């Protein structure tokens, strides 16, 4: 994950280690290199600017210049600031907000190909491991293969799937599914909504109507980490019409440079809750900012 960024940052730290002592000039030099590494990893420029500003303010302070192990202190400052942009320390550990009156309703949204249907299955699997009785809802009615895909995933997971192949009304399907979930005493309902190639008005209107009809506890926006800043921009646009409660970043196992992961929280203001790390159902993790920061620097 983020191999190039990892190499570059470690290169900066190695150079610092060689210095007899740190002063303003070699810290400035190191920060310049960190800045380049982040920009090359496709991190949003405003995020980079704030990040460098914060690291600089701390690094130029007495703490580093007077420290006996200045390089270690510098690395710790970078680590802490990475944790900050990834979501901060007081993080809700990627937990789903479960409604005290079941079923908890989770709506999944995202562009076609982002990994929405796969992530719906993965999330169902994760919740089933926590002994939750889950219903998957095939709301992506414009892509018939999505219904088949969700039903296959349901069989694989042993999870009930609600679908209505004859219906062209995604909002009604969501409502009917919720009724079915209540009758069958489900704890959690995960609705896979339709995705398009681009965010368009029609898509947003349908998702907003579905939201109003089922009043979800969580709206999770699924974004493909491989698409870098595009993923961030789409998440931002999506949020302007519909407040997501969290983000799932998929395809983190690919050669994504890190830009999406490092920018999406700061740009959208929404927490990154889960990451997808492969095509298989188990390849899915709750997101922890400090673990991710350690992976980036590790
Ligand atoms: P949707 O159109 O948003 O529902 O996207 P799909 O769930 O059908 O996923 C699109 C493609 O991405 C499929 O081939 C998935 O197997 C793949 N995919 C989804 N999540 C991941 C992931 O975390 N890692 C990898 N490598 N592939 C993924």
Automatic annotation (TrEMBL):
It is an enzyme of class 3 (hydrolase). It is found in: Cytoplasm. Residues 271-284 form the SRP54-type proteins GTP-binding domain. Its main location: cytoplasm. GTP binds at residues 110-117, 192-196, 250-253. GO terms for biological process: SRP-dependent cotranslational protein targeting to membrane. Composed of three domains: the N-terminal N domain, which is responsible for interactions with the ribosome, the central G domain, which binds GTP, and the C-terminal M domain, which binds the RNA and the signal sequence of the RNC. Part of the signal recognition particle protein translocation system, which is composed of SRP and FtsY. Involved in targeting and insertion of nascent membrane proteins into the cytoplasmic membrane. Binds to the hydrophobic signal sequence of the ribosome-nascent chain (RNC) as it emerges from the ribosomes. The SRP-RNC complex is then targeted to the cytoplasmic membrane where it interacts with the SRP receptor FtsY. This is Signal recognition particle protein. It comes from Seleniivibrio woodruffii. The chain holds residues 1 to 298 of 450 of the full protein.
